Structures are given as C-alpha cells and as structure tokens.
Amino acid sequence: MSRAPSIRQRGRPRGRRRAAPLAALALASGLLSACGGDSGPPELTWYINPDSGGQDAVAEKCSTDDYTISTQVLPQDAGQQRIQLARRLAAGDTEIDLMSIDPPFTAEFAEAGYLADIPDDLQQKFSEQAFESAAAAATWKDELVVAPFWSNTQVLWYRKSFVDQTDLDMSQPVTWQQIIEAAEANGGKIGVQANKYEGYSVWINALVTGAGGQIAEETEKGVDAKITIDSEAGRAAAEVIQTLAESEAAPANISVSNEGTAGTTFGSDDGAFLVNWTYIWGNYGDDRLGDDIGYARYPRTVEGEESRPPYGGIGIGVSSSSKHQDIAMQALECLTSPESQAINAEITGNMPSSPAGYDQPAVQELFPAELLALFQESLEAAAPRTPTPYWSDISGAIQATWHPPSTVDQETPKESAQYIEDVLQGRSLL
Fold first, then answer.
1. Coil/strand/helix, residue 57
2. pLDDT (tens digit, 9 = 90+) per residue, 26-45?
3. Helices vs strands, H then E, count in the chain
4. Pfam families, per this entry (predicted)?
5. Quick check: 17 and 140 in contact, CB under 8 A?
6. Closest Cα partner for 275 from 308, 305, 232?
7. Which CATH superfamily, name and number, covers 23-151+311-381?
8. Residue 102: CB partners within 8 Å, gap ≥ 6?
9. How much of the chain is helix, strand and coil, in % rounded to 5?
10. Domain ranges (residues) in the chain
11. 192 Cβ contact list (under 8 Å, min separation 6)
12. d(CA 99, CA 318)
C-alpha cells in the first residue's frame, strides 16, 4: 500500500485531513542539512527541474543587493523530483527556500504542510496574472499555494499533405473519431502517449474532462474523495482509446508510446496526426517537416463538447522550513513575473503561465502568431489533472487498469473506479 501512517504536519494546517502519500517519505528520510553562514546577504536556494538554463537566468535576474538566488537541479524524472524534495522537506531541511513543483504534486505538498502560506495580496496578484488553468493547478482548498511560472499544453499537430487526402476541415473543431477514421482510411498513424506512465494518465484525464466529466471530485476529503471516472464521460474516454487501439491508425508501438516515440511516428512516412506539447514545433516545424506541419485545437472527445487540452507546467513554492520566508516571497514575485517567464521561455521553450508573458517581445518571436494564439486558447480551456494529495495513487491505479490500450473497453472505467477506491482505502496495493 502506498499510503503510510500519519506524521505531524509542518506549517499551518489546511483543515482536518488524513496523511497524504508524502508522509511515507518522512519515515525513510534521515537527511538534515547544515545551516548556512550568517555573513553577507542571505542566499536563497531554489531547487529546479532540469532545463537548458532558463531558471538559472531568471535566478540571476532576480538576485539583488539584499539577497542572491542560487539553484540546485533536481532529477530528470518528475517522480524522483517529488521524492527528493519530499524527503528533505519531511526532515525539516532549512536549506530549501524555493522549489519548482510539477502540478500533480502541488496539492500533496500543500496538504503535508511543506509550503509556506502565500500572503493574500500575492495570491490575488498571481491568480489574476495567470491563465485560469494555471491558477487552478496552483490552488488547493481555495488557496493559491504555489506561484504559476510556466505552462504547457497540447495541441493537435497534423501533416498538411495527409489532411489534403481527406475531407477534414481543420479550420473547424474535429473529434477523435473523425481523425481516427481519416487516418485509418488513408493509411496514416496517430501519435499518442499510451505507455504505462504519467503521460497516459494525462491523455485519459483530457478525454474524460473533454466529455464533461472528472476522474474524482470532493478531493478535499482525501482518501474519501468521490471517484467519478465510472461515468458517461469515462466511458466516452474509453471508447476513444478502444477505437484507436483497434484501428489501423494505431502505431505498432502504441502500448509503449511516449512523447518522444509519438513524435517519431509523426515524423515518419506514415505520420498523420499527433497530440503533443508545444515543443513539437521546434522539433519538426522549422526544419524536418517545414511547411507540411499544421496545428489545430486538441480533438474533442465527443461531438458538440469543447475539448479540454492537457495542462502541464511548473509552479514555484516557498518552503515552510525556509529561514528566509519573507525574502523568498519577494523573490517569488520576481521569479514569476511576466518578464521572467519570457526569459525562461526564450531559453527553454517552456511557455509563460500568463497572457502578459506571451505579450513579451521575446516570446512573440518564438512561434508563428497563429500558433501562439492557439497555445493561449488551449491554455484557457485546459484541464489540469485532478488536484488531490493522492494523485500519485489515483494515477497509478488508472495506469494499472487502462493499460495496455488494447484491453480498454466499456467496463474499464468501472474497474478503474473500484481499484482506485481500493487503493485509497488500503484494500489493494499498487
């Protein structure tokens, strides 16, 4: 069972709760950091996810005469980032001041008390500045607990030469059923993320929310959350996956496909459609496919229901164990400003979490104007993964019951709902 005995929560409690999965990491942790020196301006340490230098550049920009910001790089894998941070925070490590957090773990860290409370005025500023999806992903129990930094979304990429063989009008919304039928009828393949990993849960979440549903509700109840994947929306999501998996439009490697392999499928002679993140333009739009690459809104799960594209990104939080919380909050305001978001985007391609960030001249030069508009439209409509301290358990249970895609049918949502509940209640192990 992935859920562990309760530990005393750090920071201000956010309501009565049962211990979240991060509690288990406290029991395994023996890490305590030494105190830093007291001479000179304070040095804030920002734990960052790996990138190509954007966060370092932002840290340098936001360092002042009153404090400096240094960075420490977390592991490449998001799950390992979570574990490393959680172990240190559970041990009360005072050397972590700021940290870049993947959206699925935001509620988990907040519920465990690892995040310092953001003052009300900054909560309002960060919320009003961000895209609605970015603010939602940064919120737990009606409080903004991290500041949105960069945001990512998926769009539907397509080969213009392939679409010309079909009767699809890509200027209008298209459904998954339509692109599957078009690809199958014309010998094309559709790139998706369907390996047994987090990317598959991202796809399933987008399909469910795109049909008007949710994977779980009332998540503030922790392990007693209402699991709602067994619904018409869940069955609509299962139908999309089943239809693709059983069609000739499915790549041979669909059960092990991730962002990289899906991109390779798209770039092959059989490439037709691809759902993937914004970086695909840099990989294929400027050189390999040139004018043959097109882009459109994420496909609809069901006819007549607006799609809910996936949401990804990074929020920055202040550690509740930091000795410098006040100045870390000052730094947080600078680190997540539209100007800083633009610096990060220009260097890494990780796009801003705010419309004002998109308005920065450096960002305007990164992509064609129509594509920038599509990214922003998609972010406005994007659906973050269900905010819950138990997302790791929920996601693991989904992957276990929906994988491989070839086994998905109309019973899958019911089976997964039962398994999620069993895992949360400690009746089953992941």
1. helix
2. 444 444 443 444 578 999 99
3. 19, 12
4. SBP_bac_1
5. no
6. 308
7. Periplasmic binding protein-like II (3.40.190.10)
8. 49, 78, 81, 82, 312, 314
9. 45, 15, 40
10. 23-151+311-381, 156-310+387-424
11. 203, 244, 254, 257, 262, 274, 275
12. 7
Q: CA distances (Å), 354 to each of 23, 130, 178, in order?
A: 33, 4, 32
Helix (H, G, I), strand (E, B) or coil at 94: coil
> Taking a C-beta distance cutoff of 8 angstroms, is the pair 236, 301 a contact?
yes
CA atoms within 13 A on the CB side of 411: 2
Q: What would the pLDDT profile of 336-349 be if each residue is shown by its tens digit?
A: 999 999 999 999 99
Provide the CATH topology of domain 156-310+387-424: D-Maltodextrin-Binding Protein; domain 2 (3.40.190)
Length of the chain in terms of residues written: 430
Residue 117 token pair = 């409370």
Helix or strand or coil: residue 115? Answer: strand
pLDDT digits (tens, 9 = 90+) for 217-265: 999 999 999 999 999 999 999 999 999 999 999 999 999 999 999 999 9
Predicted confidence at residue 266, as pLDDT, reads: 97
Residue 131 in tokens? 């895209």
